Amino acid sequence: MGHNNANRDFLSGGEEKVKKTTTLILGCGDIGMALGNELLEAGHRVVGARRHPQALDGSGLEAVAVDLADPATLPGLPDANTLVYVVSADRFDEGAYRAAYPDGLKAVLQEFAGRDRPPRRVFFVSSTSVYAQRDGEVVDETSPAEPSGFSGSLMCEAEQALIDHDLPGTVVRFSGVYGPGRDRLIRQVGEGRIAPASPVMYSNRIHRDDCAGVLAHLIGLSLAGESLEPLYLGSDCEPAPLNEVMAWLARQLKVEATETIQSPLRRRASKRCDNARLLESGYRFRYPSFREGYAQVLREGGFLPAIT
Question: pTM of the prediction?
């Protein structure tokens, strides 16, 4: 727990230090805004960059326009102590993924490496989709990432570009992100649809607020001068069979499962993500398992049946 306290002291510490701390969040969407608000509370200056910056109106973050597909827009980005690259591809196709991940990240690295005051660290938000393991294996940061599809392959290319770069960089691979507004699983269960119990398909997830918390924690360590690993796996503490997660949701929603979901699930990976490295760094999950996390989403989203 010591690390957490050190971060907090640093992040909320002396005014002189805080004033100089700027975090630039590239691709500032749902996770970026949650992270930005945490950093603002800790006294950072936070700049959110996205193609349509008006989406950040009312968020409290400084907003700046950038189009990562157009390198001419990059010099307009401010200098920052920390860069967080949390970009989403426009569509699920190879061209969009190439533009968003390896090409966009490489252009940003080139821009900021050439500045008089380059960032102290760059964080790239990646995905556990880079793993090809499908038979319930435990995976961690040392496991081979040998994706078969274009999305995982391009994500791996972007990761490697950062790890090989002269600027200090850390990759954070998030598993399935859920949270407010990310409620597809709840809606499926609400319709009476549930994953089969057999064969067991392990699923891994992380609440949106823990995504923000993990990034804020690692940024704090970096700014406090702690050494960081080049790669962290960001997933909660309990990989769980998808059937178990959906059956639990059905009990909360008080619905009977009437249909077994089949076709899309055959293509899903089944693996178990090990977050030991992240825990060893001092991070403590707000939502250690799907139960705490989905309880919050059900409550906040108004999904729970009225008590009569």
Answer: 0.91
Q: What does each C-alpha distance from 152 to 21, 132, 148, 156, 163 come to in angstroms? A: 33, 9, 7, 6, 16
| Inside any domain, residue 77 | yes
Domains of the chain: total: 1
Residue 64 lies in a domain: yes
∠ Cα 228 219 179 (to 5°): 110
Give per-10-residue mean pLDDT for the chain (308 aa). 43 48 96 97 95 92 94 95 95 94 96 96 96 92 92 96 97 96 93 90 96 98 96 98 96 91 63 97 98 96 77
Any domain includes 249: no
Q: Which two tokens stand for residue 81?
A: 């102590």
Does 247 map to a domain?
no
Task: Enter the tokens of residue 245.
Answer: 């997660």
